[in-house]
Each structure stands twice: as structure tokens, then as C-alpha cells.
């Protein structure tokens, strides 16, 4: 019956093809929008075209006359304006949190905010009728610029809270005792001839996650438990939050995340439309579906990034960093999302990156504007920080006249210095920046490309070559619950798994993490196969339904393996522990004489043994088992990490910039990531590729831009330009491995690495290509128009006569430090 | 209402449809062919790609009435007797999908691409699938999968692969 005779070979580390694929490549999918229930009604949301306006009146009469329309509701009809959608992260005690309704009652605060909802027999009828709803608005002044929003006398997004500042969050290493005072360090540097101060302002543009599956929610209120299917990353959080927000008994709600088509943080939410669908379903006692259009998604699903970063670094002339001061403004948009205010704060731990920085201060002010709210997007706070520090490292190297990699090498934490407690108080357990960097330089042919760059400079090629570096780390495996508590986060960071051993020896593994493309079913099956010694195909991973998986904290922050995977290991250990006395009983041996390996308990020194799958049958029959224990080897485990894990890596990018058109073409991209032990190299590589594409897209292509009325200009996929296959190249990726010591698998997490690391590497390379023409900075995305404008604006500010000189080996970034005066942030800056 | 008669994945259907109904809506809402999905409202994403009389189309930019008298092949009609089409197999073998939402469209478009150019270069593949967006994979493994499928679908490649290739060249009409 079972196959424990042939112990399977080691699964961890194998490039297993994914279990998930078969359904997805044949169209047997269960996207939320596929859900068809008898009597299903459809809703369409009427949305404000204005960024900021008073609602004077809503006339629903025409819409109600459309054949097929069941109802039209305003906020008051549903009590939707009384709802307070949750924010789970009050970052400071005095954080200002305006009420976020499910539908606006008397005032709209961003273009796209819902004001009414139409319910109809079909989605098409609902959409048609939504256009018949007449809303009378009195326009208010939009609030769009963060600095202006904080100025005295600014128009307030939410007059009732009296300010546009949501919260200010400060970390100062002098005060925390983890380092010196930055104020003192900078003061000292000012008067020290052996130090320079480098000041820059960088802009993190606003992005949209753009998961490919638009969001969709179906609610069936007809059973004892109300059932919500939703395209969400966080079914467990959603369930609990729906209960808390709407006052529903939690045990009367079941949330299912069926197949979910990508998330990237964009589906970490309790969306107003989820709540609306539920309210309408309850009101009508009928199943109701909401599926957004792509334009609706771009307009109203949360955005990401959007920061102004003012950075100041003091550094000795021989290249030792002495202080780093970070001042951020972070745009929250009109309301606070589920974890929105905490996203920029995560950057507090990452600006110091892989470097030894003796004095550090991080000061972030979150600001309300009349734009779509921002919340987690792949990396969440860490890409922003990594961009800031890695751009600044290049700028400092430039001013010092140092080779940018040499400058980094001089300041990073050496391999032998781990474990290392950073100035922002995290303890990095392991890492080997030297190994990853050496391998990346060699794969990239760094010296060869520098030579090619020099030749092109000397020839005055139209297409100039630029080389950019990013050496990064990140904190993965969110998160130790105690750390979250200290940051005032509203939940823990543990994860749960349960293993059910079925009578035929197969294993059902219930996990609390909730995949949407990451390949958990495959990777977790590999882990269980090794732990229990059962065949890979005998394992089924169950997830995303709160009825089977009642306990979990879902998928984000590269936590699924580093936290969720460890819960699976712990559950497997418990299964073995529970099976042991039964095995001893079956083998008529004492427990102390048993060994477990390859799925079998054997009596030491004999060939007597019994397989775990046979024990599963034995406890099912339960005819003969020891006194005093239960006939059951199923187990449930919760793992709360002690520490984060810290993947790192070195990314190198070469671009060709056409100096006549401003067009940037990727030329070569190499990255060597250390993500700890690898469960499935195929999945790891895929995560890196996808992450790179998103990070590169921030550097080159994407921006959620608003006009001066607060209207989103990039509201369709025509205007919000995702990279296509033709915009990208094949990346050269590799791994070095230093196992994490914070978890028993030695894993670190890989979901966000590519996105976090690549953006600064690309922008550094673009600037490196044209800095000799006098360009000093270009805001992201570095579109052809911006690059072309920067080159033209800079003409005359840098002598072309410098070219031979700046291209000489050892001349830093291939540019002239003398071009850039101390602290200059403008000049060629768009 | 207009009456249309179509063959979809080998079965003949006759239906009255609203003249404005899109082919993708007809497939999903009337025929239950939910393997074909919608990713946008501006014909940019390609998630809805199917074959219409042997050529790939974005089914969100075709009216159901335009498919009258035609043969439609969707992702659900590619498999034959439990045997994956070589392109499906190649997507699996090369880890060319993560969330899988773009995958039906990508596979249908890639098959069409090889129909036109059986031996494409990397750049030709990249340009050939330019109308299909993927947010998960960075496209690299999709390109690999198409290359892999191309090599297996070449005349003289393994017999099963060739059968798959023929079925494609014939437009997939069942
Ligand atoms: S749904 Fe996007 S192109 Fe058809
Ligand atoms: S696999 Fe997710 S969009 Fe392509």
C-alpha cells in the first residue's frame, strides 16, 4: 500500500516542476470571477471623477428604471459611510487616522472613490446603469503636493483631523544607544577638512502593483456561515477584519481565496468593494459579485511607493561613512490602508543597508493627499530605502573620486563580522557580501565593460554605455511577533501549519500562508516529503480557505517559506513525535531504541521497522495502540520567528543610452543573490526574474501620474506602461549560499529581492552613461523624454573636453567629481 | 439579439447574443469557458487571447457575432486525449508561469507565433508576445518555453510533439 520501502531521494534542493501548473496551463482555473452561483447578482460602483468634492446630492431614479437593475444604493442606504475600514498599523500613539468609509457619504477625497452602487442581473447592466446615476458635486481644492500639504494654511484633505500630517516616526541611533548622534556627526564633518558631506534629494515615484488578475469578490449569504470568495493575499486577516469592522460574529464568516492571479502587496487589503459586496449580499439575501475593470483597478486599488527622500551622508575623504541622516515624506493618499502608514517605516531598518554606519537618524512624516491611498507594494519600504542608499553610495563615491564598488567594499560588514548588530538595531545573522560581489563581477565582466565604456566615450559614440551597481540586503520573514508589537503593529508575525495523516498514508498539509503564484504547493510538498520521508506526490497542500485553514497570517513580506515553511517543519516534527510511541508499540521496542529516517522508524541495530504511512493506517484502525495516548498522529504547529532573515546580493546593470533620443536599452544584467538554502532552484530563479522585471520597470517605465486637478493620468494599461517581453532582456542570475541561522531550514526568502535591488542598479547605470555630459540626476522613470531633456539641459554645463579624462580607469563612475559641487541636488535634475 | 453558430473547442454552439457582447464574455459567461480570462479593458494585456479560425485574436476585441460561422480554439481545447500540447508542456517544463493568469493567453499567442515562424530567435519571440503582459515571470522563462516548444515541434522532432504541431498548424479546429 505504501512506498516507504523505497525511501525517496532528497527533495529539498531539487528543481521540481510545479504541481500547480497542470490546472493553470489547461484552463481549469478557479479565479474568483469564474464563480457562478444560482441567482447571482452583480454590482458596479459609481465613482467620483473629482479628487476632492462635497457631495450635494445623488439621483438614482434613472438608474433604477434600467431593466435588470435590482437596486441602487447610496452610502446611507447601506450604512457604508459609517463603516471604518481598518488600518492595522498605528505607527505612533498620536497617529491621525481619518475614517475610511466603504462608500463616501458627504465628501470624496480622491478621484475614483465610490459614492453609490448599482445591483443588477448582469455586470453589463450594472455598468450601464451606473452611468445613469446623477451625482451633484461641489468641487474642493485638491491636495497633491506633499510639501505644500504640510505648509501652514494648506487645504486639508480631512478638516476634521486638523492637519495633513498622518504621523511622524523617528529613529535616532544616538537616542536608541545603537550608535552616535547624527547631528553631532554632521557637525563634526562640517568643520573637518578630512570629511565631506553629500546631500541629495531623491523622488520615489508612485507605482501601481498591477497584478494581472483584476480584483473580484463574491459573497454568498445564504448558508449558516456567510461565504466570501475574494482575490486576496490575506484571507485570514480579511476574515478577522470583516468581523471586527462590521461587527459580524467571526465564526459566522468563511473567507476563501481561490486561485489568485498575482498580488505583489496589492491584494493585502480590506477593500471597500469587499465590504460593499458583503453589505449588498446581506441586504438582498442573495449572492453578489463584484469584479473590477482594469481601469478601476489602476484608479482605486492601492498604489505603492511615493516618497520624497532627503538624504545626508558624512564621509571621510578616504571613504569611511561617519553618519547618515534620512528625512522622508511619504504620501499616504487620501486614507490609511491596512498597513499603509507602516510601509515607509519598514525602511527605517534598511537605509543603513549592508554598511557599518556609526550614526544614523531616520525621520519620516506620512502625509495625506487627495490621491489613491498607498500601501504595500513588492518590497514595501525596503525598495525605497535601498534605492535611496544605493543611489547615495554612488553619489558619495563620485564626490570622493572613488570606484563605486571600492567605496561599498570599504564600508560593508565583512563576512567575518557576522552576526552583526546594525545601527538600526537589527542583528544580521549571516551574510557574505564579498562572495556574492566577486561572483557577480566575474559573471558581468566588470572590467571588460568598463573598458568598452571607455572606448565608447573616446569615440564619442551616440550610444553611451553605463554601468550601475546595487549591493543590497533586506529583512525577510515578517516577522517576530515581539518586534511587531514594539512597532505597534496590530497582529503577530507567526505562522501555522497542520498535517493530517490519512488512512492510506497520504498527507494533507494545511497552511496559513496563502499563495498567489509563488509555488507553495510544490515547495512545501518538497519540505514535507523530506521531513516525513513520504513521496512528493503523496502530499497535498491545502490553503486559502478559512474553513480548512483556520489559523494563519497569509502571504506577504517574503514570509511564506521563512515563517510558513518552518511551521510546516515543526508540524512534521510533531507528527513524528506522536508516531513514535505507536511505532514502539508496533515494533515491540522501547522508544529510546527507535530511529526515524527516510519515512521509517527502525529499531537501532536491527532491520525491524515500520513506515510512518503504515502507522497512519494503524491509528485509523486503532485496534491496537498503547494505553494513555490518542490514536492520532496528526499535528498542528505555530512558528513565531526569533529574528528576521537577511537575504542579500550584488546586482550589476549595464545600459546603452542613445544620447540623441534619450532611449535606454538594457545591455546586460547580472545578479548574484544569497537567499540562504534553496528549496527549489527553479522557483527561486523565477522569483528573481519577476522581481527584477518589476524593479527595472520602476527605474525605466512606470509611474502613476496625476494632473493638477488630481486626476490619474495613467489610468489604463495604455498609459501605465508595464514592460513587455520586448522591453526586457535575459538576466544572468546566480546564487551564493550562506544559510540563515534563524530558522532550521536555513532559508531566507526571495520574493522581493529582485525588486528591491534592481531599481538603483538601473538608475545608477543610466546616470553613469551620461554623467560625463553634465547630467547629475534624472527622476524615475528615466523615460526617453526625461533622459533626452536632461542631456539637452546639461549641454554646456560640462565640457566635452573632460571625456578622455573622465573615462580613464579609476576615475570613479566615469564622471568628474569636480562637476558636482558639495550638496548640489539640482542641475540636470528633472 | 443576433443568432450565432460557432464551433468552440470542437463543439458546435448556437446562441442568441446581444450584438455588443464580446467574444470573451460569450466564452466565459455563456459557454462557461472560464479558462480564457480578462485582464484589461483596453486590449493591452492579451490575457484573453484565443484562436479564431486558426489565428490568434484578443477575444476582448472581437464581438461574439463576428465569430459566427467560425471555429474558436481556447486554452481548454488544446489538450488531446489527456496529452498536453507541446506548448503547454514547454510552459510547465520551463517554469514559464507563476500565478498563471496570463498563461492561457500566452500559450495561445505563442502557438500562433510558431505557426508563423517555426524557428524564432529570442528577439523574435520577445516581439511576437509583446501584446501579452505578464507581471510575474519577467518573461525570461516564457521565452525559454517558446524556444523549447519550437525545438520539439520542428518536423522530425519526437512523434508526439509533431502530432501536437500538426494540430496547431491546422488551426486547432477540432
Ligand atoms: S482582456 Fe486584455 S487584451 Fe483582452
Ligand atoms: S504568471 Fe502571473 S501574470 Fe504571468
Structure write-up:
The complex is a heterodimer of chains A (830) and B (174). The longest helix of chain A has 28 residues, at 560-587. The termini of chain A are far apart. In chain A, a hairpin with a 2-residue loop joins strand 22 and strand 23. Chain A has 23 helices and 28 strands. Chain A has a seven-stranded mixed β-sheet, with helices on both faces. In chain A, strands 7-15-14-13-8 form a five-stranded mixed β-sheet. Chain A is of the alpha+beta class and 830 residues long. Among the domains of chain A are: 429-475 and 640-830, 2-Layer Sandwich (Aldehyde Oxidoreductase, domain 4); 494-638, 2-Layer Sandwich (Aldehyde Oxidoreductase, domain 4), CATH 3.30.365. In chain A, helix 12 (382-400) runs parallel beside helix 21 (753-770), helix 18 packs across helix 19 and helix 20 (681-700) packs across helix 21. Chain B is 36% helix and 14% strand. In chain B, 57% of the residues are buried. Chain B has a five-stranded mixed β-sheet, with helices on one face. Chain B is α+β, with helices and mostly antiparallel strands and 174 residues long. Chain B has six helices and five strands. In chain B, helix 2 (86-93) crosses helix 5. The chains are: A alpha+beta (830), B alpha+beta (174). Chains A and B meet through helix 1 and helix 20 of A and helix 1, helix 2, helix 3, helix 4 and helix 5 of B. The structure holds FE2/S2 (inorganic) cluster (2 copies). One FE2/S2 (inorganic) cluster sits between chains B (97-103, 134-137) and A (212, 262, 517). Chain B: It holds the Pfam family Fer2_2. Chain B: Residues 154-174 are annotated as: Disordered. Chain B: Residues 74-147 form the [2Fe-2S]-binding domain.
